[in-house]
Amino acid sequence: MGSGHSHASTDHSEPTPEAIAARRRANRILAAVLIPLTLLTLAGMAMLWPSGSKEGVSLANPYSAAPGVTFDTGTIQSVAVENCMQGVSQQNQAQSQQGQPQQGQAQQGQGADCTFAFTEPDKGGSPVKVVINPDVAKSHGVKPGDQIRYLNLSNAQGASASQGSPAYIFVDFVRTLPIVLLALLYAAVVIAVARWRGLRALIGLVGAYFVLASFMLPGLVEGKPPLLLALVGSTVIMIGVLYFAHGFSARTSTALLGTIFGLAITALLAAWATGAANLAGVGNHDATTLMNTSANISISGVILCGLIISGLGVLNDVTITQSSAVWELYELAPQSSARKLFTSAMRIGRDHIASTVYTIAFAYAGAALPILIIVMLYDRPLADTLTSAELSEEVIRTLVGSIGLVLAIPVTTLIAVLVVKATGSQAAEPQVAGIRAADDGGRAPAGEQAATHAMTRSAVNPDDLPDTGTLAAAAFQTRRGRRAAERD
Prior knowledge:
Layout: H1 2-13, H2 17-48, E1 70-83, H3 90-96, H4 100-109, E2 113-121, E3 128-131, H5 134-139, E4 147-152, E5 168-173, H6 176-221, H7 226-246, H8 250-276, H9 285-291, H10 299-310, H11 312-332, H12 338-367, H13 369-377, H14 382-386, H15 392-424, H16 428-440, H17 446-458, H18 468-487
Antiparallel strand pairs: 1-2, 1-4, 2-3, 4-5
Helix pairs in contact: 1-16, 2-7, 2-8, 2-15, 6-7, 7-8, 7-10, 8-10, 8-11, 8-15, 10-15, 11-12, 11-15, 12-15, 17-18
């Protein structure tokens, strides 16, 4: 009897030679596909790697200053609304009253009110009177305690400091503290919930931004082929992020294959849509700035890269989740047929499709909310609005990204089912063999042995079960039967 229990334990923990052989075959197939693809991607990255030269790029830095002008920071002590000319320093006011042109300027400003923030400089010294931009004063406003960055013209050389203009001008808020606190909170929540895997995902995110900043963005500036640049860079990011965050396994490799498939579909659709819909960035201030910056920068190429990159996160989410769902369903019911496993996993996939479509649409709508409000106020027909230069890029980004992720789900599911059946199709046999060995030890009567065998073989009949929940419940009953048989 003791030997029977020992044999059951040994069989339960060690896979059969057939299972090992099947697992090796599946891993070899995955490696035969992914290793050449990875090497090809790295070779393409080496060929497309930008030189880093900014020759021919002419862009005026808005944060560069004239001699004597500095960007200072400080904390607002109080806020007042006064006549605009009261914000001018006494020295400038005296200078503005010396000539007729300056007096005319003063008279023009006497009837207007401006918002001033009395600000204590971080570098020390007496508080200064900073004039707040009218759009900031109307939209958000300023209040005591706000940290701001302002332009200090008090030591400017030349006439700019003597024309009756304010000596201290608001530039922006200092947001370092809230952003750092949110980043720390985000990292703490991710690590607390996902633990070591969450930490690895955060490190992988840093690596992804490194590829974006050092490879893709400089490549676009130098005029590299945008489609190849986006495909190569996105594939490198996905390979690094998936394996670093989730480890080297058949499950991760399956998700990677599904991601690359969805990425290819997205890239093809984005390339076609960019030309067919004539996405040229017309009316976009940033696009106009880039066009005037360098002749090598293609605005349509930048838009094409943006369409591909914008769908990476959601695409990665659905593929890794779908792959994990297949593995978990198989763990619950290892006797499931491939067709039943695919059908059950696709029930999860359809729910995921619905939720991610909403996610993409609302994410883009939120980002484009000011444009949506402006277009709404134009009172144009809906068809004209959605196809306008202001919204067409967002609409196409939503459609292209959604098509890519929707098609990636069944492909990822199919690959995952094939791989899990190949690598784990024999996984249930050691458990059944262990139960049989325990029964053969003779501790239970023959009738109970027959009942146990019937329960373990028929408690989960996957092809006859209607849905995933029933499948999971039946699998739970089977496991309970196995534990009872092992105890006997």
